[in-house]
User: Which sequence fits this backbone?
């Protein structure tokens, strides 16, 4: 039996490993081996495999027999390759030790540099560098890094000693300390270690290496790493770390040395140009530390032209090899280039689209690969205006990034005033403590919305996202006085007419008018979307309540409306008729009020059907509890009573009567239509009269009437009968007949659990995952913010289930509902119309369950299209 | 092939059918045949089987070939047996026609009497009865009954003519009309029929019979009957009716004739004595009409001793034959006794127990049969005081029968005053618009609770049932002015100190002090309970929050506590410490306040553990949202702020901050303990310190700590860790170790759906079906009353799911949760602690799912014990 192999050498143009051995060697180790195989200049070293990590934990933290010998053997190889020796006074072997699992994972030990230094080796480092201060600073840093990370001495202990030293010397900056100060510090640091741990600081380089290795393996089992793995669904296997031991190279050895980071393409724009920064006579950490200003990498061409050419060529080769844009780290030691790391580079949404499309054009990748290269959510960055990154800004408050994009406008405090100013051609920002359905008109008129209260799923946030409008919500640092028409932020008073700018992607509220960049849906975006449409099978619809929303959504590629909320129409011009209906004592009175509403609804439906010609339009019957249509406080009640000519007393009583302790679980949804069938009848009449009107003009119309909040088949049956009877009446009156469906929203656990019964009569299901999440978790969106933040921050939940569908809990109801539903009606049309319809993971989940469509806000339609394509590609793998 | 048989003769000591043919002949027909077989004198007749009903509906309302011949044949047999002939002027054959399905079912046509009368037959009836007025009155009634039921002429048409007649004659009562008036009416009735239907009233008796038969079959398909069958889960087969055609006998033919109803045992007390009423010279309907006062059946012994002896003997034989108490109808015609019907008699709960136990003693039935003879819910009548049925009462208002029993006391309007007066020895009734958790003390002190608002599951109702205390809720006819300390009912003003009486079993509010009957848990009750305990396998626990509740429940046979709500302790003496905790800005402050609460909780737990020695006690950690502990209105806030020495402003802000839109879905349950682990820690400490204290005194203590409102395993893990760590600390401090379990309440759909994950760490599940019903249906108990009444009344839902467990929807979550839970932990202990735990159907459902226990209010423990035994017996069948 051959001895098991635990340690893998790399360097000198050949290696024991390669890029395919990511699981065994970790990402970093596999890429170092691969680069070495490709002939890329990599400082040699070796990787202790993740298998050792596994055995370490399986065998009560004992290492397998033979490991030590293999490490010794590889160290020997390394010493031979470099002509250096551990602890040598002339050419000491110095090492970096880094962790590296198959997937990048925070929480584990990062890096120990300069390992191998002791009171002998320091002499060698001084000799080689010719720089005593550098040598002792490296030694000081090594003791500090090792003492903290490996020996668990508090970081502050060392910082305290450093401060004392600076005070004693009367200097302010670390860099002002001289070589002998640093030499003294090395000893003070070692004494501190002795005092804290009871042991001498290890001087033996081999012992230092063993202890560093132990620390890496230990760190992979620490709570933060475990939590991260659990939260990110990283398997135990993929979470095991390797230990990378590599020869140190120094970029700070003079004018022909340096360090830098570079990208093979521009990570902001995606342009195919080598891009990056470097510093001459500096180590890697100096490039990012910001004390010296790095130079653009193109400048290297003037300083070390051969090195620059090598670097660009290596970058290009690596990109071609990995078939993706690379992010590389390099060090130049005495005019020799070394690559320390390569990995796929992070990029903006815009860059991702451009790189993906151009790489297809260059023949580097195929279209399907291109589609997987753009995180669907990142498209959001392309679809909204954004704050000019070069603009000078003053942040006056920060709220939640409730709806992305940016907006500039004058502050207004009422929806009415917003509408007036907008009508007069002004750009306005609507500032409210919180918004309510009555503010819809003003929200629509405003460029952006700012609220002091409410979370990511508050009314303002949900509506703004639906409108694709920038919104900063829950900005509790604002003191808004709506009556005085003013707010305070950072001690400054803002009144109506003052300009502010919102950044809905970060939650920043900015003073004054900041310049914005408008989105350009480049040709490459269109190309990628077309590829996505070729691949995907899931239909993408939109949630749209108005003809304008519908038109907008068509431009983003929506193939129908998945949710048209009719109550938004009730809040418009018809609001007083709605109130008359609510105040009616008898059915006849209620019907009279409803008759007034009919023409409003009908004309809205006509325009929506026109906008969605040829595509299905799902219309939900009235959903919110009636009290939402009535005023809340006394003054408003008095005002309304006078206006519509009812007694204040009566109006007050009705408001009181309709009050609910838990409106979310109250008299709403189909429960309204069942107690007051005349409401459903009026709505059905408006829908069918509109449909007939449009159809008669030769436009293809496909209405789907959706009954909300059904929990029991009897509820659906009763409402379905009202719709069908009304349809027949209208068809008879107009002597026309059109095709339509009647289905239901599945938004209660009971509906999913009894879906077979419901599907016997319902022709389609649309999961209302917002409400379904509320009832499945027993959490109200409006109230959960108080503890949900705490939950997500502390890892009780991985994410806010109102933003990302909870596949385990809510998802299992989606599965049960669809399976039971299709058991009763095999051709049942199934979709989703909650906010999750535009969230990529949720879209993929719906594809996996065999849904027919997802429906989301107009601005998220492109995201859903891409996610749907990715779902197909991922399922093929 | 023999001809199919559709018609079954009975009478003359032998019949075509018997009691086993209930499905084919209906209950009435089968019993008539059986009685005839037994030699009981039954007027002869025949039954058209339910098979005909089936064929009628299956074949587009056509009768099967051969039916007419069989009817003719049986009519001939009947005429021969009686020596009578259809339409005969001397001895006309007169019939009663009645419907009768396998199960008794309202909504179907009831009875047509005197069928066969026409202008010829009337002569025969006059001749036979010697009573012209009687004969015409019978004719008049026949035309009216037939006209209404068979020919669908409005009942009012006939009543109107009758009124006109009385007016014309200047009399007030029907009985004052004379023979010729009635004769005239017969013609007027027939004219009315002709006018309405366009056809002559049918004179041909055979045609009358066919039409009556048709009407019976038609009525079994009418909407009311269909709805009833759907609501009561009656299969199509069991819902089909037969038609019973039987010779008329007349109890109104003179001094040796009569009619009566009787029970073979006393249906109120269960005493084994023949019991009933009769009238001489009267028809059956006169006995119940109340115009003449019937005599006790014992009197018959003096009037017609032989008939009486026959009657008692027949009753006794029938009881022995059916092995159950019989409810019989009889008619005496000219000194000859006829039995018209026998069926198992309805009885009170008390009678049911006595009869069941005595019949076992008499050897009539076995114990298991006895257990099935008492509807479990009827035990409720035995367990509470009740209004003396002989008392004179004045009902001043009616509300919902929210908690059974009766109570007398002085009106009080505040919980505080209730406590004060009760402490002074007064009996009080707490009258509130609605109650809140702060009223607990006053509710406990009161004899009964009366509220103007809230449904069967309002706070008042739930708490009162838990306390076994009488409650009338949602009595909207009351005008309560809490500030003026008064209420108005029926225009009368009641103030503090006025006496009222509540009947919680009917919802009646009575004026003054009405005398009550105290429950006597007779020896027979104990005997039956002992038999139930022998049979059942399900454990019965109780929901008890106080030591008194716990003691009480033990007396009712509870085998442990399934739910001890600790927040009830928070509302007691510790309320101000609770408020300090809520107002605390920092953890240390919160801990200080909690330290004050610790001794209160500990001493309560000690007394509960003592009361439940040897039985498990499930204690739920804090559940309600914190705002429930704070005052709501300004005055109360001001008062509290002063008392506990905080600024009113601060208290107001905290109240505002804690406000929730949907408290049911808000920051409550384990979400409190996760954000404030120190609360759970204090509660765990109180539990374990109490347990150790009790255990050290040699009392067996079995604590089970239950974490509420868990939706995700992580929530449970975190809370479990706090409990386990605290237990270990207390065990170390006290040098004692006791066994305990940590489990969770399953009250959210997500918990049931992910039960396998949760059971990996939880040692028991207890379904909180109140909350689970709310979230599964998306209906709040507090708000649902507004539409749930409408739902149940109109058959949208069969029943209120907060009262009877929804087996289809909520039940499927119970099943999913238990199966998944036990897949992860085969010995998982599973129970239910919602209100449904004391509802017999739900108890049986839980038995079917293999639960270990149900837990319910102390007063429902005997009901659950009996239901659990019945579940076993029914499963054996």
Assistant:
């Amino acid at each position: 039996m051959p001895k098991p192999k635990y340690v893998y050498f790399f360097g000198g143009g050949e290696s024991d490993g390669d890029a395919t051995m990511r699981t065994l060697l970790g990402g970093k180790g596999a890429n170092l081996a691969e680069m070495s195989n490709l002939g890329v200049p990599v400082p040699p070293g070796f990787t202790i495999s993740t298998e050792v990590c596994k055995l370490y934990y399986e065998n009560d933290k004992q290492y397998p027999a033979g490991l030590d010998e293999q490490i010794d053997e590889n160290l020997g190889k390394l010493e031979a390759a470099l002509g250096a020796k551990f602890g040598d006074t002339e050419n000491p072997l110095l090492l970096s030790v880094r962790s590296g699992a198959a997937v990048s994972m925070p929480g584990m030990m990062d890096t120990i540099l300069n390992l191998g230094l002791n009171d002998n080796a320091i002499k060698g480092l001084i000799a080689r560098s010719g720089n005593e201060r550098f040598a002792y600073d490296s030694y000081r840093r090594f003791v500090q890094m090792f003492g903290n990370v490996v020996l668990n001495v508090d970081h502050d202990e060392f910082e305290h000693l450093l401060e004392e030293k600076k005070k004693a010397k009367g200097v302010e900056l670390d860099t002002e300390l001289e070589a002998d100060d640093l030499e003294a510090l090395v000893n003070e640091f070692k004494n501190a270690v002795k005092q804290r741990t009871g042991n001498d600081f290890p001087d033996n380089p081999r012992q230092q290496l063993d202890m560093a290795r132990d620390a890496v393996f230990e760190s992979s089992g620490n709570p933060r790493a475990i939590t991260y793995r659990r939260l990110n669904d990283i398997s135990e296997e993929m979470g095991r770390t390797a230990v990378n031991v590599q020869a140190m190279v120094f970029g700070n050895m003079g004018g022909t040395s340096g360090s830098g980071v570079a990208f093979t393409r521009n990570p902001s724009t995606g342009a195919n140009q080598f891009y990056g920064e470097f510093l001459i006579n500096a180590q890697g950490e100096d490039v990012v530390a910001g004390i010296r200003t790095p130079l653009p990498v193109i400048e290297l061409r003037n300083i070390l032209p051969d090195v620059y050419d090598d670097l660009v060529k290596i970058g290009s080769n690596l990109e071609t090899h990995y078939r993706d844009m690379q992010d590389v780290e390099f060090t130049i030691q005495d005019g020799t280039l070394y690559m320390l790391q390569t990995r796929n580079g992070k990029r903006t949404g815009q860059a991702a689209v451009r790189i993906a499309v151009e790489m297809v054009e260059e023949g580097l990748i195929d279209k399907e690969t291109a589609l997987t290269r753009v995180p669907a959510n990142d498209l959001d960055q392309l679809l909204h205006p954004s704050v000019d990154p070069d603009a000078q800004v003053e942040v006056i408050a920060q709220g939640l990034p409730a709806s992305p994009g940016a907006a500039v406008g004058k502050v207004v405090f009422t929806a009415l005033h917003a509408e007036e100013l907008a009508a007069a051609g002004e750009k306005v920002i609507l500032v409210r403590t919180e918004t309510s359905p009555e503010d819809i008109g003003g929200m629509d008129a405003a460029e952006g919305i700012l609220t002091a209260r409410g979370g990511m799923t508050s009314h303002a946030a949900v509506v703004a996202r639906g409108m694709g409008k920038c919104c900063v919500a829950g900005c509790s640092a604002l003191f808004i006085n709506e009556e005085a028409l003013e707010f305070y932020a950072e001690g400054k008073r803002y009144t109506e007419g003052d300009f502010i700018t919102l950044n809905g992607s970060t939650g920043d509220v900015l003073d004054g008018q900041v310049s914005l960049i408008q989105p350009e849906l480049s040709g490459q975006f269109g190309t990628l979307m077309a590829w996505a449409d070729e691949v995907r099978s899931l239909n993408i619809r939109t949630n749209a309540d108005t003809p304008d929303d519908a038109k907008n959504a068509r431009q983003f590629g929506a193939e129908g409306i998945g949710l048209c909320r009719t109550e938004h129409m009730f809040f418009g011009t018809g609001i007083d008729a709605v109130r008359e209906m609510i105040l009616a004592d008898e059915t006849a009175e209620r019907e009279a009020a409803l008759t007034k509403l009919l023409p409003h609804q009908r004309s809205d439906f006509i325009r929506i059907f026109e906008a969605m010609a040829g595509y299905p339009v799902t219309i939900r019957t009235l959903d919110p509890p009636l009290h939402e249509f009535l005023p809340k406080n006394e003054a408003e009640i008095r005002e309304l009573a006078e206006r519509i000519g009812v007694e204040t007393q009566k109006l007050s009583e009705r408001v009181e009567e309709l009050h609910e302790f838990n409106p979310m679980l109250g008299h709403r949804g189909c429960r309204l239509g069942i107690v007051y069938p005349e409401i459903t009848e009026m709505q059905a009449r408006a829908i069918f009269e509109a449909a007939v009107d449009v159809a008669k003009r030769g436009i293809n119309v496909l209405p789907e009437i959706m009954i909300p909040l059904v929990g029991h088949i009897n509820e659906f049956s009763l409402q379905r009968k009202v719709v069908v009877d009304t349809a027949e009446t209208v068809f008879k009156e107009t002597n026309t007949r059109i095709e339509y469906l009647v289905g239901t929203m599945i938004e209660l656990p009971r509906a999913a659990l009894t879906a077979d019964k419901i599907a016997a009569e319902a022709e389609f299901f649309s999961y209302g995952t917002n409400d379904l999440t509320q009832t499945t978790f027993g959490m109200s969106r409006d109230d959960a913010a108080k503890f949900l933040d705490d939950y997500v921050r502390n890892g009780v939940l991985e994410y806010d289930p109102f933003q990302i569908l909870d596949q385990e809990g809510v998802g299992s109801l989606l599965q049960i509902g669809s399976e039971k539903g299709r058991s009763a009606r095999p051709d049942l049309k199934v979709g989703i119309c909650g906010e999750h319809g535009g969230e990529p993971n949720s879209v993929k989940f719906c594809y996996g369950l065999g849904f027919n469509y997802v429906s989301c806000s107009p601005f998220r339609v492109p995201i859903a299209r891409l996610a749907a394509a990715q779902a197909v590609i991922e399922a093929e793998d």
Remarks:
- Chain A has 35 helices and 32 strands.
